[in-house]
Write a structure and sequence with these properties.
DNA-binding, single chain, alpha+beta, DNA binding, GAF domain-containing protein, about 270 residues, 11 helices, 6 strands, Tscrpt_reg_LuxR_C, GAF, Beta-Lactamase, Arc Repressor Mutant, subunit A
Length: about 270
Amino acid sequence: MPVDLMRPSDLALLKQTSREIRQALHGSVTFAGLRKDDKIRITAVAGAGGGRLTSIVLAPARGLGGRSWQIGRALAVDDYAAAEDITHDFDDQILGEGIVSLAVAPIIVRRRVRGLLYAGRRTRSGSPEVLRFLEGRATHIAHELNIRDEVDDRLRLIRAADLAHHDVPTDLVHLHARLRELAHRVADPEVAAELRALAAPHPDPARPSGVRLTDRQIDILALIALGLKNTEIATRLGLSLPTVKSYLREAMARLHATTRQAAVVAARLHGLLP
């Protein structure tokens, strides 16, 4: 299956966040869009019919959003119609929805503006708390998009490694461990389960079977395979050191291994690690 077909819907993420902002700000008009090439089209709307606002296609420096895109930070105007330091390319859409005050925050991923997130009100509202809240939600979207991008990048590299018929390339060991880490950072349990499934090596009928380890035990062994110490593993996985040691002892017992590295070798023999 192509990588892009496995990625969760970015549009659904925008729509959900727009609805959450509208609820939190009690009746605001919220809308958002993601960048494609050098344009950002509004595709998610909450609190308005959507017909007007989804006709907005932004470029840098055009309108309040274009200005935010250009300088890379959140902006707000208390009286949109009277604002003199922005272009008014989208007055028909904004004023047509009765929006008086408007705030926008850029969605920045890897130092690049990937989208814009707006909150508008039909009354004057220059509250700095609104702007800070909007910035926080934009950061949340950016964080989720960055995780999805990382997953896509690693899946492409893993598939490239598979096509090259490498036995166990070092890069693949790193990618396997990183995928399992990302599975614990994704909020959606279905996406997390999919990531763990993708990280699982393909079973080999010639390998011994019968040993079962928990997800956390495999996470720990995957990081040991990278050469990490128990203290480093605890930090990476957000666990206490005693918890890491407990998982490791149980995994070693199940694998009949007497050392950490022997446990990694045994896990590979059983097809549990690449």
